[in-house]
Design a protein that fits this description.
Elements: E1 2-8, H1 11-21, E2 30-32, E3 39-47, H2 50-66, E4 70-82, E5 85-94, H3 97-112, E6 127-133, H4 139-148, E7 157-159, E8 161-168, E9 175-183
Antiparallel strand pairs: 1-3, 1-8, 2-6, 4-5, 4-7, 5-6, 8-9
Helix pairs in contact: 2-3
Length: 188
């Protein structure tokens, strides 16, 4: 199964994200992420078998017990890898330290058990991918739209679950199914 670990965001926040996706609909060189699929990927595991899924569940359970729920909001928009080479349009998650700590503890445990190979030069940046750019056409117009949303901010919401998800790739787009859901501890 093709799997990843993620956090979902509330439906009302997804509606806010849809409003900043709208101006990008006119660009034929972009694929916008379906609003129902908007999420933050913490770790992409790729193809894993049933035994690896069970080991991953144990790590997720341990991690959820050692981290508390997080109050956060989505802020601003940006691009990966950089404005000269557009590939991904995203919105950031703030504050990012707590979410980065959860991701790091998952990464360490998954690497230790041989379930994940981290890239030494790759640093986790908490974000929600809202669209992907296929080529450099309309680059300047796309960057202007991104700049217009540099002050984008959602209401505060709570991240209180970690999810192990299966991704099934289909011609009409991916389907994501929850394999397991783990509640983060309540803050003291």
């Amino acid at each position: 199964m093709r799997c990843f670990i993620a956090i979902d965001i509330p439906k009302d926040i997804k509606k806010d994200l849809h409003s900043i996706q709208k101006p990008f609909e006119k660009y034929e060189n972009m694929t916008l992420v379906n609003t129902k699929h908007l999420h933050c990927t913490l770790i992409f595991l790729g193809e894993i078998d049933k035994t690896q899924i069970e080991k991953t569940k144990i790590i997720l359970q341990e991690c959820s017990e050692s981290h508390t729920a997080i109050k956060c909001q989505l802020k601003s928009t940006g691009v990966f890898p950089n404005p000269d080479y557009l590939k991904v349009i995203w919105t950031g998650i703030s504050p990012k330290d707590q979410l980065a700590a959860i991701q790091k503890s998952l990464e360490i445990k998954l690497v230790e058990t041989g379930l994940y190979n981290s890239l030494p030069h790759q640093q986790f940046t908490p974000h929600i991918t809202i669209g992907r750019v296929r080529d450099s056409g309309h680059k300047h117009e796309i960057l202007k739209e991104i700049e217009k949303n540099s002050t984008f901010t959602t209401p505060v919401f709570e991240i209180n679950e970690l999810k192990l998800k299966q991704s099934t790739l289909l011609p009409g787009g991916p389907i994501y199914d929850d394999i397991a859901v783990y509640k983060l501890r309540e803050p003291a």
